[in-house]
Amino acid sequence: MESKRSWFAWFRFSPVGATLLVVGAVFAVLTPTFLTWNNLLNVCTSASVVAIVGLGMTLAIASGNFDLSVGSTAAFAGCITMSVVPQIGVMPAIALGIATGALVGWVNGLIVTELRVPAFIATLGMLTIVRGAALIYTRGRDIYLFGKTDYKILSTGITPALLALAIAVFFGLLLKQTRFGRHILATGSNLASARRVGVRTSYVLWSVFAIVGATAALSGLILSAQVLTGNGRLATGLELSAIAVVVLGGTPLTGGQASIPGTLFGSLLLAVINNGLNLLNVSVFYQNVTLGLLLLGALTLASGWTSRPGHVVTKDSKVRNKQTG
Amino acid sequence: MRFRDVKENINTSIARKQNLSGLSDKPQILSMSSPPQDRERRRAATDWDLLWEKFGIATVLVLVWILAVVGTPRFANLDNLASVLRQSAFVGISAVGMTIAVLAGTFDLSVGSTQALSAWTAVLVASHYGVVPAFIAAVLVGGIVGLLNGSLVVLIRIPAFIATLGTMFLISGLTFILTNGQSARFNGKDFVWWGNGQVGGVPVPFIIFLLCALVGIVVLHRTPFGRYVFAVGSNIRAAHVAGVPIGRTVLFVFLAVGLFTGLGAALLGSRLYSAGPGLEPGFELNVIATVVLGGTRLAGGRGSMLGTIAAAILFATLANILNLNHVDAFVQRVAVGLVLLLALSVEGIRQRLVERWSRRQRPTNPAH
């Protein structure tokens, strides 16, 4: 009884983390190759791509917005970087790519704060525009980088995982330890109140969107480095996976709260499941179904504990009302 | 008796929402910072607001058509106009349902995958059992997905964004599994007529689109359900206090989205002679963009079906003009995104101007 309760408490503390452990254990038993170094490295790499942009998205959602344009931004930044590597070298090209992403994000922020277009629509418009720009820039063709193995370093070994971890630690400290982090959360909890108490919400939102753009660009660079090929269709649908991962990690869409470890676990869980299904020779077609079921299942469990009518509110359960529909 | 109370409550709340009573519904930022004296001026501003909301996009559509007729010689011929209207119908029918959803303050991201599944079902059933069962099956599939979405949102209380995102992945995966990645094909005459035929020069899908919009208008403005939709979208707590059955309303809203999407999907299948997984990528975002471009607020409670019709035709017109002028497909995406952003910034820019003006009147405003 006692042990069951504590297990339960642990599960409540981090549902994604617990699920990740269980799912990982199941795959480890079912397939001999799951727990090999190479395979785990693969899992980490594919998790990192989503995790990096997901971490940026966590900030955006914590600030009460979200960004649908990250997939397009990733593609645009990837294409630009790939095309300039031969001319200006690897590191400047990477910097340029990330700057491009930040610029796109900053424009998103401007549209949201200055033109007062709701973030959903503003970033939806930018999704189309930036994707179009990427396709125009590449003229719809592929960009190859032959022999530029320096660039490949972005996606080899533990680099992506290290990058994701570093960004996670950085964002975690940013949110918990700095004034800017508090301002992000304040803006997300209540924009009007935050403005009243002197938070310069416009600057906060510009910066957050720029950060999201930069992380999206980094994800795009890793994706393009994996295959040393860039094209305008890179990272299609990344925005929805990124949002899914954030929500899976327990960050509520209502803003004002963020779970950085949750986002990491969420992207790992997704990568582990896809990898495990591949190892078990399950058709790729089932991966979308899994993602859907996972999202709905996780959210059903989470909402069952927190926002069900008649639920006894305990001290530690964070009750989030106001999120009907 | 209870119903009358509800009705009156809702009437007042809607009146308030639409600023007919002179109160501002604009975010607290405005109402907190401004004393009651300048209500008069704000009311003048609000009238402008309502006008733009009602007729703005229709005006833009008329302007675009005039420009198109003048600037693009091939635009103004009957075949071309018919094809514009036909194209507008496939997004439009789904957008009719989505308008109801957005008015109720939610939306549905799963319409794209629902469309693929429904269209595939329609084509498959048409090739085996005929046209009527095909349409019934497609609408049924849409309805089932709609009910699933509604139950997730209402019964399990998952936010609509995530619930429909989940069903989007779920249904698109399911479609891939069911179809094994293959498209269904059928070109029987009776079936294909629904997507390609004309009645008196007007394309059949467009007629069906208008009928759907008419049904939507009647439901929204002439039935208790329609009132409930506006009430829930305007202020869900007030609606709850007024006795509106919120759960049932939201469930029916999602059902409506599913049913309309199913119907539109069947027509698309008939238009293309075939349908399969990944039918129209990004369809859900197109539909939402159409609704929002039509002047319906994402926050819910305000908007109109007429705007949605105009916006659907406007998007089809833009694509058509760009095609006629041999504009690259990639540039077209940029153009469509820009139009969306421009149309939606108008409101924000106007707000800012009004604010700047009122600030100049009262320089000691501590709020900004």
How would you explain this protein's 3D organization?
With 325 residues, chain A is mainly alpha-helical. Chain A has one domain: Orthogonal Bundle (ABC transporter involved in vitamin B12 uptake, BtuC), CATH 1.10.3470. Chain A contains 14 helices and 2 strands. Chain A has a two-stranded antiparallel ribbon. In chain A, helix 3 runs antiparallel to helix 11 and helix 4 packs parallel to helix 6. Chain A is globular. The C terminus of chain A is likely disordered. With 368 residues, chain B is an all-alpha fold. Chain B has a single domain, classed as Orthogonal Bundle (ABC transporter involved in vitamin B12 uptake, BtuC). Helix content of chain B is 76%, strand content 2%. Chain B is built from 15 helices and 4 strands. In chain B, the strands form 2 sheets. Chain B has a two-stranded antiparallel ribbon. In chain B, strands 2-3 form a two-stranded antiparallel sheet. Chain B is globular. The chains are: A mainly alpha (325), B mainly alpha (368). At the A-B interface, helix 6, helix 10, helix 12 and helix 14 of A face helix 2, helix 7, helix 13 and helix 15 of B.
Concise overview:
The complex is a heterodimer of chains A (325) and B (368). Chain A is mainly alpha-helical and 325 residues long.
